[in-house]
Design goal:
Blueprint: E1 3-6, H1 26-38, E2 44-48, E3 54-60, E4 68-69, E5 73-81, H2 90-104, E6 109-115, H3 125-130, E7 134-138, E8 143-149, E9 158-159, H4 161-164, E10 173-177, H5 183-197, E11 202-206, H6 210-213, E12 223-227, E13 230-233, H7 239-247
Parallel strand pairs: 5-6, 10-11
Antiparallel strand pairs: 1-2, 2-3, 3-5, 4-9, 6-8, 7-8, 10-12, 12-13
Helix pairs in contact: 1-5
Length: 248
């Protein structure tokens, strides 16, 4: 498999794997605009040259849009290999490229979000364990921070206090989200509209700055849905899923 790094110079002509369409599509334009701003923070987006979901996105942890304390680590935003690309060792290729790059940049290691049991939009814990990652922190709701150290005796990454106990002091539904995930550009407005049509209390907090993201009351900032203060899910909702959640 051949891989290519998406940069400011080629982003207009390259697909971004997680949302494959033309640049006029709201999901594509949203994600590409977010990436363009993050490239200045040393974000790396490495993907297959083939069209499909096969990529890794990572950034120095101090620039991550997550409430984590992982100085001198590299944080993996997303490692996604799916469909026909699974089972060919491409996830290994992408992770090894990240490891090599991170070592060359003098990082202490890598860190990434997961859970004891596989959750949507989070890394597979079985794969992480196989690759030598271990859990270094965990929230009240089972979201885990995994890490791979390049050296012995280095300080482990950890969640900031605001993320350890995911909760908000507001009633009704409260959604925190960023444009890191392209699907939000399409589905957040749909859920907002559905809530309004059904007279459901629904507040949306669009995270647009790193400083804001690093103070979110959840380790997952791409999509964190709360109800009456309690954390519910990081799964991006369409109208059908949201109404099902409401009725449940």
């Amino acid at each position: 498999m051949e891989y290519i790094r998406v940069t400011k110079e080629n982003i207009e002509k390259e697909h971004i794997c997680c949302a494959i369409s033309n640049n006029k599509d709201v999901q594509v334009s949203s994600k590409k605009a977010w990436l363009m701003q993050r490239f200045d923070d040393d974000l790396v987006f490495l993907k297959s040259v083939e069209r499909g979901k096969c990529f890794i996105e990572y950034i120095p942890a101090e620039n991550a849009w997550n409430p984590i304390d992982a100085e001198e680590y590299m944080y993996i935003d997303c490692l996604w290999v799916s469909g026909a690309f699974k089972g060919h060792g491409y996830a290994n290729d992408l992770l090894e490229a990240c490891i090599k790059d991170s070592k060359e940049k003098g990082k202490k290691g890598l860190c990434i979000l997961s859970a004891a049991k596989k959750k949507s939009y989070l890394a597979d814990p079985k794969f992480l364990k196989y690759k030598g990652f271990t859990v270094c922190d965990e929230t009240d709701h089972g979201i885990q921070l995994w890490y791979l150290s390049f050296f012995s005796g280095v300080e482990k990454p950890k969640f900031m206090e605001c993320a350890k106990h995911p909760r908000v002091n507001e009633s009704g539904y409260v959604l925190y989200y960023t444009n890191q995930c392209p699907f939000n550009a399409k589905y957040v407005p749909i859920v907002e509209k559905t809530a309004k049509e059904n007279n459901i209390p629904f507040k949306v907090i669009h995270i647009t700055r790193k400083e804001q993201a690093r103070n979110v009351p959840s380790p997952i900032t791409t999509y964190a849905l709360f109800y009456d203060g309690e954390y519910l899910t990081n799964e991006i909702m369409n109208e059908k899923k949201f109404l099902k959640l409401i009725n449940a």
